[in-house]
Amino acid sequence: MARRRKSRRALSRRKRAVLVVLGLIGAALLAWLDRDVVAPQWSAPSTARGQTFATDSARYHGQAFPVVRIVDGDTLHLAAADLADETTKVRLVGIDAPEMGTNRSQRMYFAEEATALAQRLAYRKTVRVYLDERAGSRDRYQRLLAYIALPDGRFLNEELLSQGCVYADRRFRHGYYQKYLQLEAAARAAGQGLWKNVTPEQMPPWLQKMQSDAPARR
């Protein structure tokens, strides 16, 4: 009996030793994965975004540039080389304008009016650029994300919203998110611009989806 007990104790010690060794190996493997495989997938994008914002902020934030092209109600070009381009393409933060499309058949309701207002307010004007750390400085197309201050101090983003030419973009957060929703609500209540006659089918697909997914009010 004594021999059996000693044998069992020895076997148990060996099992514990094996489990400890396996545990140490597993911990070392996880540490290696976290350092060389897992960590870059999670930390690199955040670090890269911060570095990009810092670089863009140093170059653009609070600086003035002439507007050399209006693409549509929410996109314009500044006279400043950027990346591989001769101009800096800017996407206005917090708003979404009806798309002009590549041809008239693709043009959304009120796209021409939104583009015309942006043209009248900003084209060939020297404007000042302001970035928003919460929104980031670049979108997925590498356009600069910015608020554009007009020569008279008004912001182009807000003027387009207040005059009912664009939608408050609910898809992405930024520093003036609630204010932009209020500006849109005021324009809607007053029947400004597109809000006078727009139908749900004429709204951007993302907004149609949001409205259809929203619970019905009683």
Description:
- This protein has 218 residues and is an alpha+beta fold.
- It has a single domain (59-212), classed as OB fold (Dihydrolipoamide Acetyltransferase, E2P).
- It contains five helices and seven strands.
- It has helices at residues 2-60, 111-122, 156-162, 177-189, 205-213, and strands spanning 64-72, 75-78, 88-92, 95-96, 126-130, 144-149, 167-168.
- The strands form two sheets. Strands 1-2-3-6-5 form a five-stranded mixed barrel.
- The N and C termini lie far apart (80 Å).
Topology of helices and strands:
Elements: H1 2-60, E1 64-72, E2 75-78, E3 88-92, E4 95-96, H2 111-122, E5 126-130, E6 144-149, H3 156-162, E7 167-168, H4 177-189, H5 205-213
Parallel strand pairs: 3-6
Antiparallel strand pairs: 1-2, 1-5, 2-3, 4-7, 5-6
CATH class group: Mainly Beta
Q: Shape, please?
A: globular
Class by helix and strand content? alpha+beta
**What's the rounded overall pLDDT mean?**
85
CATH topology: OB fold (Dihydrolipoamide Acetyltransferase, E2P)
Please name the CATH architecture. Beta Barrel
Low-confidence runs of at least 5 consecutive residues: 18-45
Number of helices: 5
